[in-house]
Amino acid sequence: MERNGQTFHNRVAIVTGAGQGIGLEICRSLVEQGASVILNDVEKALAEEAAASIQHEGGRCIPYAGDASSVGFIREMVAEAVKQFGKLDIAIANAGITLYGEFLDYKKEDLMKVLDLNVGGSFFLAQAAALQMKEQNSGGRILFMSSVTGHQAHKNLAAYGMSKAALEMLAKTLVVELSPFGITVNAIAPGATATERTLADKDYEQTWSRITPIGKPATTRDIAHAALFLVSPGAGHITGQSLVIDGGWTSVSPSPY
After folding, report:
1. Which pLDDT band holds residue 49 (cuts at 50, 70, 90)?
2. Is residue 221 situated within a structural domain?
3. What is the CA angle 49-186-195, rounded to 5?
């Protein structure tokens, strides 16, 4: 694997929901810069294929399939990172679910699924990671994956947008409890991003290119660059913050509909 510097040399990271898209690109970028990574996805085959693609390029990346909303699994995953690599420095809660639906007939079970993974999974990954980082006494980085829908209303995404806004408040709140241990907690809020899932909609790229001031949706690499900055040594004095990466869309906020 070609090395573009070694910013994350001797760093160990967990990234959830990383079988494809933004999560996979974050894993690849971390490994390119020297990190060892536990790559999680709920789908075993997807996790193994994604990790193998990084390993093939010479990187240290181990698949660890399972449900990132399960507290027991999260704790096992943190323990696995320590078992495999000796420590944990970075935790990125990327796993999330989007369940569209009109507010007036949105089902309770759908709301609970969204909150359980998007909020609960992120909360308890941060908790398990912070406990390990505290024990190591060497600081650490925690990053949540928010969304522009946590900043601007978006049709049929009341539950999802609420869950993403909650993560930004969680990042701010944890500053009080985790700063004494040298642990920073931040969030990034991607806007429209070209991934395998979004590009399944044949009109996606054209629609978002038209309504995004910069003239195109983000690439997964664009989002990964921002994520890596906030978990890097260079961001040591940044905590409790949320960074929007949307090509200017939230400044004008035209609806894709």
Report:
1. very high
2. no
3. 35
Residue 155's domain comprises: 12-191+227-242
User: Looking at residue 129, which CATH number applies to its domain?
Assistant: 3.40.50.720
Q: Residue 141: which of 222, 228, 83, 75 has the closest Cα? A: 228
Q: What pLDDT is attached to residue 160?
A: 97
Q: What is the arrangement of strands in the sheet containing 140-145, beginning at the earlier edge strand?
A: 60-65, 36-41, 12-15, 90-93, 140-145, 183-190, 242-245
Specify if 253 maps to a domain. no
* CB neighbour list of residue 33: distance below 8 Å, 6 or more residues apart: 3, 4, 5, 6, 7, 8, 9, 228
**Number of domain units in the chain:** 1
Catalytic positions are 147, 160, 164
Average pLDDT over residues 33-52: 97
The number of residues making up the chain comes to 257
Residue 222: is its pLDDT beyond 70? yes
- Alpha carbon distance 181, 163 (integer Å): 27
Is residue 113 included in any domain, yes or no? yes
Could you tell me if residue 165 is inside a domain? Answer: yes
Q: What is the mean pLDDT of residues 91-106?
A: 97
CB distance 226 to 146 below 8 Å: no
Indicate the Cα dihedral angle 199, 203, 205, 208, nearest 10°: -130
Report d(CA 58, CA 199) in Å as an integer: 29
2 Cβ contact list (under 8 Å, min separation 6): 32, 57
pLDDT at 5: 67
The reported pLDDT for the residue numbered 2 is 39
Intra-chain end-to-end CA distance of the chain, in Å: 42
